[in-house]
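User: For a benchmark we're assembling, each entry needs the component sequences followed by a predicted structure for the full assembly. Here are entry 17's components. Please fill in the structure.
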Amino acid sequence: MAIIDDQKQLYAEFEREAIPHMDALYNFALRMTGDSDEADDLVQETYLKAFRFFEKFERGSNCKAWLFRIMKNTFINSYRKSSKEPDKIDYEDVENFYENIKPSSTDSAHLEKEMYDNLLDDELSNALASLPEDFRTVIILCDIEGFSYDEIADFVDIPVGTVRSRLHRARKMLFAKLYNYAAEKGYVDKTETDE
Amino acid sequence: MKDNREIYFIAALADGEIKDPQHEKKLRDEIRDNPALQFEFFVQSSIKDLVAQRLKITPAPQEVRKHFERKLKHPFGFFGWFRR
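Assistant: Structure for entry 17:
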């Protein structure tokens, strides 16, 4: 009887601690795999592993970060190779973009209006999906999920300085990609860069 | 900026992640006096805001959520369940 009570208590605790983070995990899974079926599977596999090892979870520590760590490792081991990978941006190309962008085109108010106001959500999603995985991860965790640098460093297992540099580069890559979308659609003048 | 890595702190500034107020003030002063750094800050802060506003969290499908909740309450427990 005591075993059943313990089990019930464990289930209740898991439901209270882990289940509320399902939306955040699903969102991360969807953006990493690019496929809703794979995201479903990744979430389920993550929760199954989390439940299996829930007794090892340190009570009072950050359950969301713990779940993300499990998901990230599961993704790396099982899903990375099969997930749909759009054409990736090369950071060197992005550096060239910033070297070539002319001062006349860097009026931020103009860019914000012309680039962002005309941007479709799907275009932004596609641009994010085109970032290399390490860069995409930090953007999702910081800008969508709202984790602090310390939390991101903890579960991506990199120093805080690397979180900072990856975010900086990732946002520059994303901006360059969005600029090109805007230029292709004629919202900003493509002749402003030498690309 | 004497150190190339210092430029990465512009991302940290956009994220409110600079813990030393003196460092933050110095960086803000440098940005104010340098158009190239102003552009760097614009890229960091505007992309952060854009992503946060446009790419909100996609909720897990109800069927996935319900599947878990049913399983947790099932008399035979969580491990009777395998991937669909």
